[in-house]
Amino acid sequence: xxxxxxxxxxxxxxxxxxxxxxxxxxxxxxxxxxxxxxxxxxxxxxxxxxxxxxxxxxxxxxxxxxxxxxxxxxxxxxxxxxxxxxxxxxxxxxxxxxxxxxxxxxxxxxxxxxxxxxxxxxxxxxxxxxxxxxxxxxxxxxxxxxxxxxxxxxxxxxxxxxxxxxxxxxxxxxxxxxxxxxxxxxxxxxxxxxxxxxxxxxxxxxxxxxxxxxxxxxxxxxxxxxxxxxxxxxxxxxxxxxxxxxxxxxxxxxxxxxxxxxxxxxxxxxxxxxxxxxxxxxxxxxxxxxxxxxxxxxxxxxxxxxxxxxxxxxxxxxxxxxxxxxxxxxxxxxxxxxxxxxxxxxxxxxxxxxxxxxxxxxxxxxxxxxxxxxxxxxxxxxxxxxxxxxxxxxxxxxxxxxxxxxxxxxxxxxxxxxxxxxxxxxxxxxxxxxxxxxxxxxxxxxxxxxxxxxxxxxxxxx
Length: 462
Description:
Elements: E1 2-3, E2 38-43, H1 48-61, E3 73-77, H2 80-94, H3 101-107, E4 109-112, H4 122-125, E5 128-133, H5 138-141, H6 143-152, E6 155-158, H7 163-180, E7 183-185, H8 193-209, E8 216-226, H9 231-241, E9 267-269, E10 277-278, E11 293-295, H10 300-313, E12 320-328, H11 331-349, H12 351-361, H13 371-376, E13 379-388, E14 393-400, H14 407-422, E15 433-435, H15 437-451, E16 455-460
Parallel strand pairs: 1-4, 2-3, 2-5, 3-4, 5-6, 6-7, 7-15, 8-12, 9-12
Antiparallel strand pairs: 8-13, 10-11, 11-12, 13-14, 14-16
């Protein structure tokens, strides 16, 4: 067990809008990544999604990281008693009869850290190859985590969808990350891994089949989802809607290529994605008319930003029209879904209704769907249809058996961190910087997801 010392006298908490703590890291302070003690440190382990992430690590790699592929890991958070309870919970669920429970308890190292206190960050990031964090809102709790990862050359992955905050971090710490080799990656959960990877694989396949003569110019993603929502996610959504998060920088860094030049490709969001309307079953050409309807999807704009950024980083030259939406078999459900999203947004903009919702309706941060429902009754399926610049057509499907926002997000972010920690030399992104999941980890990441439960298929149809 490793406890990070308290900051020295005079060193207090830094305000959330102060992106640079001023902490100076010398070259001698940086341990080469291959020599670091931990492959990943899981930060935010006591939160709702954090506990599920610990659960995935124990289930897949064992308490001591020696089940299957060797993994050296630890958990981190602000409360030692809560970290200990997380360990007891996974022992209760996964320990076999006859196991020495104290030995299992001691096998998981814990790190005590308050991420708003910069002086406590070096010992969190110094000895880890990668930090995996689920502790949001990220503009409050990851400002200095990103800073210190960039300064110490430590890879970083999170499940944030707070893109204006991340744009500011990219502008501030991008040059430092490039210098130290730290790969900083956001959107490594349900927002926006399924859509980013689906677009990536379709783009890559079209270019490969045409010897680089054709690019993806249109993609539609048909989403079928059944899942719940946690208090932490609702709290973050509330902050995003009422403008409490950071303002974006004047120049959007998501529109620049890997070389820092303006992107030649424009990615635009199809406005029809937000309009409840009838659509044809692409996989059921003989289906009756009006048998499928599209409805707005809460995270479409975020997913489009992820795809737009990936297109810029991969150096695409053709404009891309992107859309994703919920699918349903009835007009009333489609209309209800669209109206519901608009009403929720309006309610969160009003201080009175916002207070009532957060106090009496929404689950509190740390609360969420029950485990049985998340595992047995939830899923996400994304069917995608793409068109190339010369008329070729492709279809793909990516399927997650479990609650995509929680059980599956925990798996997504864990495997993202392990992709960078264990397979750094195989990754498509060479060198440090800020990346999307698709550009940072590509097929290496997709294969890890498929090996741990994701189903994926792609085929050419024309």
